[in-house]
């Protein structure tokens, strides 16, 4: 038996080895079809600012009645300098049975977050990026950058991944890791945002910048953005004008308005995106302006709990 599961702990290694992005993405799509019809309580997250600049302590509780599950995600967020090797996020997810009150598992919270982000990126990219998309541009070179590559490549036949980072050695390191994981793809490092985004079909931003990285004025008319990095109530990596003038998607409208600002007032939430089968989003300029939502963490935790049970007891375990 895998040592992590025997201790009731799901590590990053276990999630990477046994979790499947496409399977989790399918669970998310099904869950959002009935979102808002009861069986779910998601209070507002609690955020406490620490004494260190740009340091936060967060808690995100959920009652997921459909899965008989209580869940809480607890963690810290520390903005790091480019030369700091410590992770930005340290977190754990605790899952309890809503029937017995017993703890069911503890999950590496950062790994769950990364896996969740890859899967929701796959969901949104599937609906928004044009079908013949071949070029993915990634701005940033950290953990989220890798998850963007994984999520996008799950749903589109990408042949070229372009990378830009403010720290060139980080970009080269990320490129080397991608070449090892995805040797069939053409991986290139670029020296500017203008160059990396030119003619790109999909652009993913994964930085800690809370001010616009660029105006992105010379991008394709049908480009799709996955904006996954830092944000606050005043702005984020993309300019507000781009968010307002594109078809913008968010996980939850209220969360987006509170955390990423009023430019998101006309955004579509995930449920509307998933349920609207008549609109061709692939022909539009689209922006996924992600701020996170605990419901996605709960869906991911429930999926991983099932994976853990199947791993321990076989596919027929109840």
Give a quick summary of the entry.
By secondary structure, the protein is α/β, with parallel strands linked by helices.
Quickly give the structural class: alpha/beta
Q: What shape does the CA trace take?
A: globular
Helix content: 25-40%
Please state the average pLDDT score. Answer: 91
Q: Which regions are unreliable across 5 or more consecutive residues at pLDDT < 50?
A: 1-7
Q: What order do the strands of the largest sheet run in, or round the barrel if closed?
A: 10-9-8-11-12-17-15-16
Q: Any overview of this molecule?
A:
The structure is a single chain. By secondary structure, the protein is α/β, with parallel strands linked by helices. 36% of the residues lie in helices and 25% in strands. Helix 3 crosses helix 4 (109-128), helix 3 packs across helix 11 and helix 4 packs across helix 11 (294-313). The longest helix has 20 residues, at 109-128. Mean pLDDT is 91; it is low at 1-7.
Features:
single chain; 318 residues; alpha/beta; 8-stranded parallel beta sheet; 7-stranded mixed beta sheet; 17 strands; globular
Topology summary:
Elements: H1 3-6, E1 9-10, H2 12-18, H3 21-33, E2 40-41, E3 46-49, E4 55-64, E5 69-78, E6 89-97, E7 103-108, H4 109-128, E8 135-139, H5 143-155, E9 160-164, H6 168-181, E10 186-189, H7 193-197, E11 202-205, E12 224-227, E13 231-232, E14 235-236, H8 240-245, E15 247-250, H9 253-260, E16 268-269, H10 270-275, E17 286-289, H11 294-313
Parallel strand pairs: 1-7, 8-9, 8-11, 9-10, 11-12, 12-17, 15-16, 15-17
Antiparallel strand pairs: 2-4, 3-4, 4-5, 5-6, 6-7, 13-14
Helix pairs in contact: 3-4, 3-11, 4-5, 4-11
